Amino acid sequence: MELDSHAEDLASDLGVDKEEVKADLKNLVEYSVPIDEAKGSLRRKYGDGSSAGSSTPSARNLGDVTPDDGSVTVTGVVLTAGERSIRYQGDDQVIVEGRLADETGVIDYTAWEDFGLSPGETITAGNAGVREWDGEPELNLGESTSLSFVDESLDVDYEIGGDAQLAELQTGDRAVSIEVSVLECERRTIDGRDGETEILSGVFGDESGRLPFTNWDPAPEIEDGGPVRIENAYVQEFRGVPEVNVSAFSTVSALEREVDVGADATTMEIGDAVRTGGIYDVEIVGNLIAVRDGSGLIQRCPECYRVIQKGQCRTHGDVDGVDDLRVKAILDDGTGTVTVVLDDDLTEDVYDGTLEDALEQAREAMDQEVVADTIRERIVGREYRVRGHLSVDDYGANLDAETLEESADDPTTRARAFLEEFGADAEATEVDL
Ligand SMILES: [Zn+2]
355 alpha carbon to ligand 1 midpoint, in Å? Predict the structure, then answer.
């Protein structure tokens, strides 16, 4: 919502002049006060008679808080509390994020002030703002929140602390603790919000799976290859998949024990995989029903490496394209479809030729589309098992393939997979198959 409509809402709620409210609101927002909090404090200033946002909101069970609540008073146990720095309206601000639980439920919170929250403590937050995030209510603890520590500890069904396995992590998770091996790690210079800065990026693994990471303040324990224990990491989406973020506020320590990395990717139905919104490492099996345009022999911009049409890059204009091979193919398993993207190596495999062969074929035919046609003939209609990184966005679901193999269409394999899925002891039945 724009400032204007916030001001209008407030003015009509409070029965005061809109311009006056808007000027006050603008002032507070310029001082980096979150909008909900700014509205709360104006409600108090102008003496709100209504219940929403009044200075003494009623006590609520966490399970009953809804995004429609203006502000609430709640009591709960701090499950996690992780500091991180964000840029809010032009300024760096340290916030604390985590989860709060009582007997009825659990809720995410953001604390804009340093209340000294730590896991295991029971608190009462008076006049905590409620905002909506992804359809769920979240608590905002700010200047207008009165926070007190309660001696009597609540007994909750949730685990205190943020210990998690990689496979459980989801975009939006905060204050998580993980124990991982560092599978890949490289130091890179990026153009950050404060100029050039060095970061580490790579892939973590644990017993449950693998996830990419960014370490914003390079930790030697990670660069040395681990294994490491990381406390207070957060998960953010990057290029459509969840990524572990290790910040300057995270604690990284070398682990004594080894961390085994699960070698198998989870095999999922396409429909289920797409509904997760993105998975770093997943395996799907389906029929390859079409090879899309933009496959086969293509040209990329030498600057940005994006695919170009007729020598024109959308960003860099007229460029000398670099020849490359790729395939974008649609895989369908009856539950959904994804576009599987094959890089140059995998494309050479399915084309059964090199880039030079493709250029030669295109020269002879005086048409580069013949390369895509050849690939089409070879792969459409066959069943493939593909493993890679699934990202889902407004344009659809893409699976960047790491491996692709024609699915052994062998009844024994299928029967075994079927039995495993239903919990039968595959080993015991193997003789019969
Ligand atoms: Zn370009």
Answer: 21
Cα dist from 325 to 183, 295, 346, 371, whole Å? 28, 7, 9, 9
Residue 245: how many CA atoms within 13 Å on its side-chain side? Answer: 22
Ligand 1 centroid to 384 CA: how many Å? 33
Q: How many whole angstroms from 323 Cα to the centroid of ligand 1?
A: 14
Instruction: Output the CA 307–ligand 1 centroid distance in Å.
Output: 8
Q: Which two tokens stand for residue 270?
A: 């396409």
Q: Do 210 and 291 share a domain, yes or no?
A: no
Q: State both tokens at 344.
A: 């140059």
Q: Are residues 388 and 273 in the same domain?
A: yes
Rounded distance from Cα 389 to ligand 1 centre (Å): 24
Q: Choose the final residue of a domain: 254, 281, 310.
A: 254
pLDDT in tens, 358-382: 999 999 999 999 999 999 999 999 9
For the domain that residue 210 is a member of, what is the CATH number? 2.40.50.140
430 domain-assigned: no
pTM: 0.65
Same domain, 40 and 68: no
Q: Distance from the CA of 62 to the center of ligand 1, in angstroms? A: 50
CA 28 centroid distance within chain: 31
**Pairing label, strands 317-318, 312-313:** antiparallel
Q: Cα(305) to centroid of ligand 1, in Å?
A: 6
- Token pair in block for residue 433: 């198959």
Given this model, what pLDDT does residue 26 score? 82
Looking at the chain, the whole-number percentage of residues with pLDDT higher than 90 is 56
Average pLDDT over residues 229-258: 91
Separate counts of helices (H) and strands (E) for the chain: 10, 24
